[in-house]
Amino acid sequence: xxxxxxxxxxxxxxxxxxxxxxxxxxxxxxxxxxxxxxxxxxxxxxxxxxxxxxxxxxxxxxxxxxxxxxxxxxxxxxxxxxxxxxxxxxxxxxxxxxxxxxxxxxxxxxxxxxxxxxxxxxxxxxxxxxxxxxxxxxxxxxxxxxxxxxxxxxxxxxxxxxxxxxxxxxxxxxxxxxxxxxxxxxxxxxxxxxxxxxxxxxxxxxxxxxxxxxxxxxxxxxxxxxxxxxxxxxxxxxxxxxxxxxxxxxxxxxxxxxxxxxxxxxxxxxxxxxxxxxxxxxxxxxxxxxxxxxxxxxxxxxxxxxxxxxxxxxxxxxxxxxxxxxxxxxxxxxxxxxxxxxxxxxxxxxxxxxxxxxxxxxxxxxxxxxxxxxxxxxxxxxxxxxxxxxxxxxxxxxxxxxxxxxxxxxxxxxxxxxxxxxxxxxxxxxxxxxxxxxxxxxxxxxxxxxxxxxxxxxxxxx
Amino acid sequence: xxxxxxxxxxxxxxxxxxxxxxxxxxxxxxxxxxxxxxxxxxxxxxxxxxxxxxxxxxxxxxxxxxxxxxxxxxxxxxxxxxxxxxxxxxxxxxxxxxxxxxxxxxxxxxxxxxxxxxxxxxxxxxxxxxxxxxxxxxxxxxxxxxxxxxxxxxxxxxxxxxxxxxxxxxxxxxxxxxxxxxxxxxxxxxxxxxxxxxxxxxxxxxxxxxxxxxxxxxxxxxxxxxxxxxxxxxxxxxxxxxxxxxxxxxxxxxxxxxxxxxxxxxxxxxxxxxxxxxxxxxxxxxxxxxxxxxxxxxxxxxxxxxxxxxxxxxxxxxxxxxxxxxxxxxxxxxxxxxxxxxxxxxxxxxxxxxxxxxxxxxxxxxxxxxxxxxxxxxxxxxxxxxxxxxxxxxxxxxxxxxxxxxxxxxxxxxxxxxxxxxxxxxxxxxxxxxxxxxxxxxxxxxxxxxxxxxxxxxxxxx
Amino acid sequence: xxxxxxxxxxxxxxxxxxxxxxxxxxxxxxxxxxxxxxxxxxxxxxxxxxxxxxxxxxxxxxxxxxxxxxxxxxxxxxxxxxxxxxxxxxxxxxxxxxxxxxxxxxxxxxxxxxxxxxxxxxxxxxxxxxxxxxxxxxxxxxxxxxxxxxxxxxxxxxxxxxxxxxxxxxxxxxxxxxxxxxxxxxxxxxxxxxxxxxxxxxxxxxxxxxxxxxxxxxxxxxxxxxxxxxxxxxxxxxxxxxxxxxxxxxxxxxxxxxxxxxxxxxxxxxxxxxxxxxxxxxxxxxxxxxxxxxxxxxxxxxxxxxxxxxxxxxxxxxxxxxxxxxxxxxxxxxxxxxxxxxxxxxxxxxxxxxxxxxxxxxxxxxxxxxxxxxxxxxxxxxxxxxxxxxxxxxxxxxxxxxxxxxxxxxxxxxxxxxxxxxxxxxxxxxxxxxxxxxxxxxxxxxxxxxxxxxxxxxxxxx
Amino acid sequence: xxxxxxxxxxxxxxxxxxxxxxxxxxxxxxxxxxxxxxxxxxxxxxxxxxxxxxxxxxxxxxxxxxxxxxxxxxxxxxxxxxxxxxxxxxxxxxxxxxxxxxxxxxxxxxxxxxxxxxxxxxxxxxxxxxxxxxxxxxxxxxxxxxxxxxxxxxxxxxxxxxxxxxxxxxxxxxxxxxxxxxxxxxxxxxxxxxxxxxxxxxxxxxxxxxxxxxxxxxxxxxxxxxxxxxxxxxxxxxxxxxxxxxxxxxxxxxxxxxxxxxxxxxxxxxxxxxxxxxxxxxxxxxxxxxxxxxxxxxxxxxxxxxxxxxxxxxxxxxxxxxxxxxxxxxxxxxxxxxxxxxxxxxxxxxxxxxxxxxxxxxxxxxxxxxxxxxxxxxxxxxxxxxxxxxxxxxxxxxxxxxxxxxxxxxxxxxxxxxxxxxxxxxxxxxxxxxxxxxxxxxxxxxxxxxxxxxxxxxxxxx
Lengths: 462, 462, 462, 462
What we know:
The structure is a homotetramer.
Chain A: H1 14-20, H2 23-26, H3 30-46, H4 52-70, H5 83-95, H6 108-144, E1 149-154, E2 157-163, H7 164-170, H8 172-189, E3 191-192, H9 208-214, E4 219-220, H10 224-229, H11 232-258, E5 266-267, H12 286-309, H13 323-346, E6 349-350, H14 352-357, H15 365-374, H16 379-395, H17 405-411, H18 419-422, H19 425-431, H20 440-456
Parallel strand pairs in A: 3-4
Antiparallel strand pairs in A: 1-2, 5-6
Helix pairs in contact in A: 3-4, 3-6, 4-5, 6-7, 6-8, 6-13, 6-20, 8-11, 11-12, 11-13, 12-13, 15-16
């Protein structure tokens, strides 16, 4: 059944109908579609368009259609263009021509916009709680490994010693921003288009404020043309997935590196690793690689939606139908990779010995320069002296802490025996005691802050 | 001068140095870079690293470097890698080796992150006020053209009559969402990285809370590794440009269409149109086309940043340097196209006669169906009868309002003479009187709401 | 079954396994996977690794597995990671431990690269023939409507009269470039990775030249590490889809415009149009809008693959697994929209009267300037005179061909009565008689050329 | 000066003019613009539109304009919209109103399309020769380091031993595909639009075949509407940059990894490394990171162009003007990063000892399985036995080659003392002797092939 039969003389071409049909992906909207239709039925009744009996009969019909869909006993037809059509057809088969009254004063344009927003709101909350779980795991890892010192990297070169807990937390805060962003999108999505009809507003005296309440929307949309046209919330959803995915890709990359034989800091639990079909010795971080790769999928869907929206000529153009596959795919991927990352981190084996062995004495070069600064040497001059010492040590193939004092003093007279005590990772981290720094106490403070912050997001929306 | 001379034995290859150099684009950060360095100098002084005299001398030196840069008398050298290096070199040339103390406890990693955030915060406010101006113009156009009726379109086919003012406002609300998004990004950007040093936190006892206040940041960053690594605010900025640009592309597209000879609803003022080099009769909407095309640029820069960030292995990798050209380009484009769109709309000529002539009687088909509904016919049945009447009229090449009554009654007995009065655009719009609908009173209410809403965004940040 | 059981002590986490599993999308590779395995079996036999009996038994086993898969009687297990695993498991269930010899000297890395290339080669040929069909339809439309004159547009403003046939052909040549690009990718894909094993080359004395012949590849790959790593052919495939999709989006856009009430040049056949659920009069070009929208999908998949490939650290990383969903989706979309566009164009109704009525006399403005040029007036001066006449006519609201002569002569003395005969679409098109121009004879020549060119592409690959 | 003054009554708004103006980026087209205009002048003369004297005077005027531009003495005006306007204005200032004859029968639409193609053709050849240089360096590195054995990686885990030369060559072949792609785009670009005028073809009897020859184009375009509309060559150019950039990002990533302290295989020459502003010990691979990051820029420009082209409604829309910044930016980046990568590779220090020390005995696990296969054990069974031995060794924290024989024999009776000789990298690589494999002789053969192939591309276009 097409809802619009009558206007056109001929049947739709078979391939054209297949191209046009959205049922394959929008059937997952069934529960929200029926919820929207029930609220609409009640609104029509309040507006005097339906009698109370009609209202009851339609609602029961809708509920029984939904039940069939959820129990997989509903028979979808090839001619059902979309979930809205299928539900209306199912309803009419159940309650007869009264079913034809449901679509009074409503268009699929405002119906699908409403359904989709209902779905996205739920999806946002579900993702938020999964990100929260990941944050909790990171907090726990930070607590458990509080005083382990590791080399901190910039440019993939050892830079300065940092606490491993500081590193774990450095991946928690990006997730916090992700959750703030999700909460923002929730607010944006929380606007009800229903009652906008095709584009001009419904011609029936519907109380849109109370309809919004019934569907748990914060408010009705202020402009009917914008309401059926707006897909900002969908693009925002996918954009958030892209940024969240990017954060996860950085975490995954670092886990892959640190689990390589050459770094050797971590070992993945066997439940989160795979082997090779030909090389019996291999233990591979496939899941982390797929997480890294999914960034491409998120970025791709973002481009899909932005390209789709460019320069649309009307209030509603069918182009908009392509919004859902992108959003659904991002949701499905996120709700898979987030728990996998969580499980993988929870079971991660940390090789403290390897981490300790990896610390290069040259990591304390900045501290050596700072030490001269304390004696009144301008930083830039102190820097230069230490830099030359590092080069000297490299030329002599000597670890920095074994370079004899006379070499140091040739480079700057202010160096003395004390420099060898400066070359010490523990004191190096302890000195970085500012708010946000890597000193054990600073990180302890940070853990407390993190615990508080992660519980505060999104509280009023749950 | 390189800040890191001493460690490496050889000079940088000339092309490699050119590739590495960011001065060509980051020199516009000079004012915020100096502001950041002054605040840092004060913080070092408070921390006892500098004497008050040193503090004063450095600050005066920095101010005079900035003055020279702003008056174009500062001589940049090929060897200046970036604006930070150039400023530090300029300072040292002015005040001697004392200049070498400025960089104590600070890294370019936290310096550039701070500079960039300061710059982005200003940029967000400037864009916000330009979008507000555009909203004001749309409100004015809605007020002035309050009761003009135009065909509303879906699928680029005439759908239902709407008020022209309703159409203008349908482009105001997307801009409102853009401004909410900008305000959100402002908050996110309002976090100070300074004091994070290279990655581990500064080793000097800097009071980061008061440093943040001095630079008008809401708070210092909670994790030094995240602080130098985070570019979310930059991607968010570019994403917002992409969505705003997409909204403008839809407006531009519709203005192009409506200014074509075939629609004829609008005429661009000559100040916002161009001609052809070969066809003397042409009056072309070039600026609107460029606005439409800029969507591509925004989307492109978004992909640039998201690709750049994927899977970075360290806390700070030089890849991040590519963040600024994208943000600057989006800013430059937005601050050009927003006022142009504003000027173009302010001077738009509206051809009310053409708009009126364009209204097809078939636009009232939904009203005809609704009319049967009032008589108790289920909507789907009423729809079918009207659809067939439309087809009949098309076959007979007759306007719908001239199709004789007997044809109607053959299709459904409930039709009567009254249908000819239903085919009336004025009554069609008046019926859509719900909140958000196209009825004159509803639109008047919407105008008031819009005026209130657009003044409320961002109030506390200005 | 995992092919790599034994190395790891624990089972894979359930969600991790689901994330890792590619069977949902790679099962369509079954026929090429089995073809590749049969060829590999023969190669192993030639190399003395299998006896002839073993070879026969394995091949029969593989054929019967494929048959079951194709008849949907093959039972896939949750533990089958991918199609390769499923086939090897199925084989071993049929022929016992001999099945375990199939994977000798081969890795899934070279296996999947081979499978995928076999699949892509077939896909390219199928798409090519669909594009060819569309070109044939455009040629036919050009022939049938050879002398119909329409307004040619630039900037969506009427520019100069052109032949409708010229317009149809202007959409044929981009498709010709698409087919050249497809043919190029075919050549690039026509290289066999098999025998590369995991990365280093197989340790068995396989004759890769003859193996390539057996699988109808032009040549074996020259570097085993590159062979398992290279996905250029997949990105090229998706890129070609994106450019082809872009061409179709431009055609779709113009068909949408020209089918609007305001242009009225074309009417879609009812088999390629849809209606509205609420507005009984609507006839909507939904399929064209979806074609336009699919550009977003193609561009998105392109970004997916390019992002995926960025900066991969090894020869083979699991990231590469994401290559197939993108390619398959592009193929599925193209093989749907190409025949739909073909059907839609074949049945398009052309309203010659509307097209004729739309021609604005001002379209001949260039010809008026050219006419002065013939009298020795420099083009730029002639242009200026005509431009002013057009403005005069606009101010007087007079069609250009009704502007009295004295106005013209005030603007330039070289104008005379003859100018009114210049304002004639037929003579305007006839004058553009260069190769590639819109004159009827030029277009006739173009049609012949097009017919020849479209048959020449890809001849040797079919 | 605007070329189209006269038609419009008012001056262009200042910001609108700035938005519309392309001179800032298209002035680099000056040489090809003048070359195109000279050829056009000659064609007009042949067609009888200009006398020979006029022809000479115009050509001399154009040449002197170009000379001024190239010597930076040409004064561009704010009112020059684009390079075409500036050149025509300059010409007219030199030779008076005769300059106004140059634009006869030509439009900026076909002029800019011609200019741009001329420019792109040169750019393609220049890039090709830079890629060739990089290939030569890789070949040399492969020759010099022919027999060095390194761990080959998949999933960033050591997989099998390979020759370092094989690894270098694995980065040569992707570049070979890039050059094939560039050669393909050259052919596609080698089509002349000139003579298409605005869209309908020039109305003057120009011999386009001989005009094409004069400008060294292979052929004139077959359809004037397509000719001014087609930007496929520009998108193809940027796409090629994106794929080439992706290949370079993979090479850069691996060089970054292998230059880290943890891998230690390579050391960058000081001329291709940088330091830190705060950490004196750092030696950073900034240039490689920027190369990796530029992938984002290329992908971004690709999306810019694809988005720009989506659904353009006319033959020529001003949107197309955005084509050039993207192409120019990609060219400028490529011509910087290609020589930098070449220099960096040419000067790379290879630490053979570190590479040798890194080889894990477990790299020979496949060989151990293959050894059982020789004794008749099915590969899958042999694989399982070795996998368990690897796990045993890991549990006992013993290198695989030190695991006592009895453990092996518990896992499979076919193991014997010989297994310890199989654990040998030299014999492991030597066994992979197929075409494309890593055996020293195979790689020697590959080097010869590579040398031949890289000289063959593009020969006829130079």
